[in-house]
Amino acid sequence: MRDYVRPMTHQRVRTVSEQIENRDIRGTATIARETAQAIEVAADDAEAETPAEFRETIRVAARTLHEARPDDDSLSNALRYLFKRMDGETVATLQESVTSAARRFQENIDRARETLGQIGARRLQDGDTVMVHSHSADALATIEHALEAGKEIDAIVKETRPRKQGHIAAQQLQEWGVPTTLIVDSAARRYLDETDQVVVGADSIAADGSVVNRIGTSDLAVIARERGVPVTVAAQTVRLHPDSLTGHSAGIENRPEREVLDDATRKQIGEVSVENPAFDVTPARYVDAIVTERGQYPPESVVTLMRELYGGSARDPWLEE
């Protein structure tokens, strides 16, 4: 038997890693899918002679991908899913476990939004008025499938300043023929009196069921609870964040000041300090249900789903030496 040689990173893995790092590959589902596919290719081409060498080959590939964007939940979740299912006593059985899991993960990603939309649509009743915050393809999928089921839905869309992602959502809803009212963010409380459901997406969901999403989500959820309007969070399972025990432990990005104040306005106002957080945290107690492609869950139960899919929150195996 040849002497052990530390495996080189597969060319496909290096290419995908560079594309993710350079943001040539974007979007939660796309990043997760490309990560799984790169590991599948690396496993299929592995020249390991022993199970230990094969495991090290996959560990090196995973570490290379993870380093491209260490804070990306979808990338890490793709790796966790595969490592949880890597099993076997021989190189051949290990190889088969990884490649089959990778193919299964990619298939799940490809149909996740449609399945999620079908599940979420069951929460919407014919004649409902739905309030939407920001733009979330997962949240809009629930409305799309409600429409396909023959339900009549009206929408109230918050602008979601400062970047006005609500305009994107309003345009999509208009294209589907949904009667849509666009409101400024500060009018949410007023229009909740005319709302039957609030449906939002999620950037990340912590183990305690708290939700990190576009800034303003938390305010809306608190007011909706006061008004007795149920809040549904629609998010694919790649959005789950097993490493965060609470949403408050997730990093919150601060966006550029120029999104809030342009140069002319700043000159007029003076040297005022500007804070522009991109996201906020909605505690689980303000969320009625989290809808995923695996079903709908009370927020406090989502940790069970995380463990089933991705394992516990122990140190990720590709980081181990």
List keywords for this structure.
321 residues; alpha/beta; Rossmann fold; seven-stranded mixed sheet; disordered N terminus
Structure, described:
The chain is α/β, with parallel strands linked by helices and 321 residues long. The protein folds into 2 domains: 11-112, Up-down Bundle (Four Helix Bundle (Hemerythrin (Met), subunit A)), CATH 1.20.120; 122-309, Translation initiation factor eif-2b, domain 2 (Rossmann fold, 3-Layer(aba) Sandwich), CATH 3.40.50.10470. Helices cover 45% and strands 13% of the residues. The chain contains 11 helices and 11 strands. The strands form 2 sheets. It has a 7-stranded mixed β-sheet, with helices on both faces. A 4-stranded mixed β-sheet has the order 8-5-6-9, with helices on both faces. Strand 1, helix 6 and strand 2 form a beta-alpha-beta unit. Helix 1 runs antiparallel to helix 2 (28-45). The longest helix has 31 residues, at 91-121. The chain is globular. Mean pLDDT is 92; it is low at 1-5.
